[in-house]
Q: What sequence folds into this?
C-alpha cells in the first residue's frame, strides 16, 4: 500500500456491513478511497458509520475488514466486570483471527466465572471445570461439552498447538450459554421483580 494515496471524503459505491465499533448493521456511501497511483485502481476503502461516525477499513487486496466483528452474542447484565471484560476480549480476538489467543483467554474466563461463583483461588483449570459442573452451573447434559472445553484449554496452554477457528467458536458458544444462565437471566428476573 506504499503507493496508495488517500483521497478526500466522498460518495462511494454503497457498502453493507456491520460496524465493528458499535455493532449496528448499515449501508454506507460516505468514506475515503485509497488509490494506487501507478495502476489507478482502488486498493482500500474506508467507510464511515452513520451511527457512531467511526471508520471501518476494507482492504481490497486481501479482503480484510478492520475492525471486524466480535464472534458470539453480546450478553447484557454481566455485573462482574472482569468476567464481562474477558468475555468481550474473547469475542474480539475472533474478529482479527486470533483463535489461539481466544482459546487461552476463554480458559481464563472459565476460571474467573468459577471464582466469582465462590470457587477457591489457585485451583487448576481442571478443578475449576469440575467445580462448575458439581455446583450445577452447567446443565447435566453439558458435562460432555465441559470435558471438550477442558481438553481444548489444556491443549492451547501446554502443547503450543495453534487453535482452530471451530474450537475457539465452540468455547465461546459454551461460555455464552453459561453466562446467559448464570448472569443474564437471573439479572432479568431480578429487574422484573423490582418493578412489581
Ligand atoms: Zn458504528
A:
Amino acid at each position: 500500500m506504499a503507493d496508495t494515496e488517500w483521497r478526500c471524503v466522498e460518495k462511494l459505491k454503497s457498502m453493507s456491513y456491520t460496524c465493528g465499533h458499535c455493532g449496528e448493521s448499515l449501508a454506507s456511501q460516505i468514506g475515503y478511497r485509497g488509490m494506487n497511483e501507478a495502476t489507478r485502481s482502488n486498493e482500500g476503502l474506508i467507510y464511515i458509520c452513520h451511527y457512531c461516525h467511526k471508520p471501518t477499513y476494507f482492504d481490497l487486496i486481501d479482503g480484510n475488514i478492520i475492525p471486524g466483528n466480535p464472534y458470539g452474542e453480546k450478553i447484557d447484565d454481566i455485573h462482574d466486570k472482569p468476567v464481562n471484560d474477558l468475555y468481550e476480549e474473547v469475542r474480539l480476538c475472533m474478529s482479527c483471527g486470533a483463535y489461539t489467543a481466544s482459546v487461552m483467554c476463554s480458559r481464563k474466563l472459565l476460571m474467573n466465572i468459577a471464582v466469582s461463583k465462590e470457587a477457591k483461588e489457585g485451583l487448576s483449570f481442571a478443578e475449576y471445570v469440575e467445580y462448575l459442573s458439581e455446583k450445577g452451573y452447567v446443565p447435566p447434559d453439558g458435562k460432555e461439552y465441559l470435558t471438550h472445553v477442558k481438553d481444548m484449554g489444556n491443549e492451547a496452554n501446554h502443547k503450543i498447538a495453534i487453535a482452530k477457528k471451530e474450537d475457539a467458536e465452540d468455547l465461546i458458544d459454551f461460555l455464552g450459554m453459561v453466562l446467559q444462565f448464570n448472569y443474564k437471566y437471573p439479572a432479568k428476573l431480578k429487574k422484573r421483580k423490582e418493578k412489581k
